[in-house]
Amino acid sequence: MLTDAQRNEYAAKGYTWPIPVLSADEAAHYRERFEAYERRHGGWYELSKGQKLYLLQTWVAELVADKRVIESVADVLGEDVFCWGTSLFVKEAQSTSYVSWHQDSTYWGLSSADVVTAWIALSPATLESGCMKMVPGGAEREQLPHSDTLASENLLTRGQEIQVEVDDAQAEFAVLAPGEMSLHNIRTIHASEPNNSDDRRIGVAIRYIAPHVKQINAPDDSAWLVRGVDRYHHFIHETPPKADMDDAALAEHKRIMQLRQGVLYRGVDGKPAHV
Question: Would residue 202 count as lying in a domain?
């Protein structure tokens, strides 16, 4: 649950942090579950690109449905909440990977700005490790033009970046300890620099939406109702997995991701960097 100061900051700037949601031990536990998967399967990339990891991995589903996370999200979205997607952002130690200045709203095809990303740190997110930086301005900010760079070092799906100049002097840095969370609005301008530290920077980004939001870039889309009721029926309802990567989960994830790829890569010119 957010404090009054955090609610006011989110309303004024389009973001707020730090929000404690996990203990340090819990964050370490989730990191270990993720890295154990890597050790068994030889890397994280194949897992990360799916975007709806909560349909494949029980540890991600647990994070998505954690009441401490959802209570904070409900403070800005309202009592009824869908999870629309997740992204796993891993910057290896001494990595050149980065995220360019962008707005999440650019290619998601969602009809309203009642969309918030909860970004949960599983390792230290510091200036040295390339934490997020954001420019004040949330739901009231206009949609800015973007271009697709398809840059391989850019962690975004298209390597997209804002086509107008962003004043770096306005940026605030979302420094987070493991287990802390930031919230930012779909229209908030944000980016992050390479990881110059000796540890990986691992973050789980969870995209939550209010049920009245519609998908306007495709005839169908899906989401997981994690709190309250769905009075609008704009999204196909999803079900989290009973076990990691079981056959039913893999089949459902494949079907759902065929819908989602049509949204995220609609109109892309060239091969996306991360598919």
Answer: yes
Q: Specify if 144 maps to a domain.
A: yes
Q: Which pTM does this prediction carry?
A: 0.90
For 80, residues 6+ apart whose C-beta sits below 8 A from its C-beta are 210, 211, 225, 227, 228, 229, 230, 231
205 within domain boundaries: yes
Query: Mind listing the pLDDT tens digit for each residue in 209-243?
Result: 999 999 998 899 999 999 999 999 999 999 999 99
Q: Which of 21, 202, 185 is nearest to 125 (CA)?
A: 202
Strand-pair category, 222-227 with 236-237 = parallel
Q: Which residues contact 32 (CB under 8 A, 6 or more apart)?
A: none
Q: Work out the average pLDDT over 242-264.
A: 83
Q: What are phi and psi of 230, to 5 degrees?
A: -105, 105
- Of the candidates 207, 201, 144, 156, the one whose C-alpha atom is nearest the C-alpha of residue 175 is 201
Q: Is residue 107 part of a domain?
A: yes
